[in-house]
Amino acid sequence: MAPLRRDERLVAAAEAHARFVAEHRWQLSARVPDDLHWGANCTTFYDRAVNAGYPPYGVAVFENVATGPAGTSAADIFGYLMSVRHEDPADPRVEDIGTGCFVRSSPEPAEFACVQLYGTTHIE
Is the pLDDT confidence value at 98 over 70? Predict the structure, then answer.
């Protein structure tokens, strides 16, 4: 398996969605319980990747989202993102990665959101 490549388009999409999730998580949970993959205007992670410039055809995009109280350790966040119920960056289809995190400090309590987007431009 080749190493993952950092893709600035996926980074931009991940950072923007992390901010959106941190600022609007309570609204998202009310609209679609426990589904943090929906973005502004009901965009999907594929929509966000393509809107950030990732190729629109012949691609696959995957997303992991973690949220919690500010001050959560990086090890705990990583462990959650890599848990069984999340997409696996070791999937042989994955070539590109973009990660973004955002901490919302007000209103209290302070919370974080981290988003990982994985993609490939070579699907069969």
Answer: yes
